[in-house]
Write a structure and sequence with these properties.
- This protein is 74% helix and 1% strand.
- With 329 residues, the chain is mainly α.
- The protein has one domain.
- Strands 1-2 form a two-stranded antiparallel sheet.
- It starts with a helix and ends with a helix.
Length: 329
């Protein structure tokens, strides 16, 4: 990543840090608070909506990066879709929206983004026809958006994941080789990492503010986009490795709840990270454990980027398995 491309990342971090600080007081005055309940992992009312600063900083930085890369027009659909998700999710944070409305909004954003990426369906060539490949990508992206939201349940976890994924994407893009597409992806990943770090200053335990859906939903969407673009560039193993902790925790939990016949769209405390907190681990310790796992996953993704994909996948599976075992003890 060039010095010029680093400027948007630094600016995103500063805007996110300062913007989140200002939001703490504004949201408290406006009464936009996450109130504790039986399914909460926090004990005191806490402002919800820090994602306004994070996502705003990321979108502005992406406009700068894509503009410098001459790809602003190509990326405009993704930017507008992310903005639409942020607006819808902010409405959900304030007054609540029906599950069907939220899901329809997520699906529309993913469909629009995939429409702007006509080559995405070819990712599964020659195993699947392009239209089936596109449908599979849409479902995977939808799941990633929602699981990122589901995993935003304790101080520092989702912010740390966004930091790790953004940094990991930047690392893989720099290792995988020169080229305008990879350079742009690395710069975009760096902006997400920097903005997430600025937010984490205020969200680390004990958190003074939460992301809210206005943050977790668009961040999941934008990170899903970057992971898909990484796979398109030939780094599908790295794209699978980097989010593996979040994927495993959310997917295994969903499978277990489906097996028990539960209504999976309802709030719960069955995720591995929630069980760890219920078992006596502090938010900070669980978030730090996840960050340690993610550091290992970045290393495994780097192995994949230099051609040792299967070794990277094996190492990633081991790192995630150990992390989940520790959380579930």
């Amino acid at each position: 990543m060039t010095l010029a491309a680093a400027v948007p990342a630094l600016a995103a971090g500063l805007v996110s840090w300062l913007g989140t600080w200002r939001l703490i007081h504004a949201l408290e005055r406006g009464g936009v608070l996450d109130l504790p309940n039986q399914r909460s992992s926090h004990a005191v009312p806490t402002p919800r909506g820090g994602g306004i600063a994070v996502v705003g900083a990321v979108l502005l930085a992406w406009i700068a990066v894509l503009g410098m890369a001459g790809a602003l027009r190509q990326g405009s659909v993704v930017l507008l879709a992310a903005l639409g998700l942020a607006l819808m999710s902010w409405r959900d944070d304030r007054a609540g929206l029906p599950v069907a409305v939220r899901f329809a909004g997520h699906a529309l954003a993913v469909a629009a983004a995939l429409w702007s990426m006509p080559q995405a369906g070819a990712l599964f060539d020659p195993w699947l026809p392009a239209w089936i490949g596109s449908a599979a990508l849409a479902l995977a992206w939808l799941w990633f958006v929602n699981l990122f939201n589901f995993m935003d349940g304790i101080d520092g976890l989702a912010g740390g994941e966004a930091l790790s994924l953004g940094l990991g994407i930047a690392v893989v893009a720099s290792i995988a080789g020169a080229g305008p597409a990879l350079d742009a992806m690395g710069a975009l990943g760096a902006t997400v990492a920097a903005a997430s770090l600025g937010f984490l200053v205020w969200n680390w335990h004990p958190a003074r503010i939460f992301l809210g859906d206005v943050g977790s939903v668009p961040l999941g969407f934008l990170l899903g986009y970057l992971l898909l673009r990484l796979a398109e560039a030939g780094q599908w193993q790295a794209a699978l490795i980097l989010p593996l902790y979040f994927l495993a925790d959310a997917t295994i939990t969903l499978g277990l709840r489906l097996g028990r016949g539960e209504r999976v769209w309802r709030a719960h405390r069955d995720h591995f990270y929630q069980r760890a907190v219920a078992g006596g681990m502090s938010h900070a310790r669980v978030a730090a454990l996840a960050l340690g796992c993610n550091a290992a996953l970045i290393g495994c993704a780097a192995l994949a980027a230099v051609g040792l994909g299967w070794a990277g996948l094996a190492g990633a599976a081991a790192a995630v398995a150990v992390t989940l075992w520790i959380m579930a003890r």
